[in-house]
Design brief:
Layout (H helix, E strand, L loop, with lengths): L1 H10 L4 E3 L5 E3 H19 L2 H14 L2 H9 L4 H11 L3
Amino acid sequence: MQGANWLAARHGIGGSLVTPSGERRSAGDVLHQLMEHITPALEEAGDMREVGSLVHRPLRQGTPADRQRRALDQGLPAPIDLITTQSTAP
C-alpha cells in the first residue's frame, strides 16, 4: 500500500497506479474502470455529469502541479504569473 501511495503522489494523474488486484496500470485506465463501476450509482443519484467532468478535466488538462511544472520550464516569472492569476478572484 505504501508503494502504491508513493507512485500516486510522485507521478500523479499522468503516471501509473496499482490496482486492487496488484496490477500496474495507467491512472487514466484505472479511473476509466472506476467510472464504469460507479456509473449506475452516479446516474441514479443524478451526479454522473458533475463527477464525469471532475474526473476527466485533470486527465485532459493535467493537475495544478502539472501546470506549475510546465510553467516553471518557461522560467521563473511564468509559475508566479500562473499562481497569482489562478489563485485570485476575478
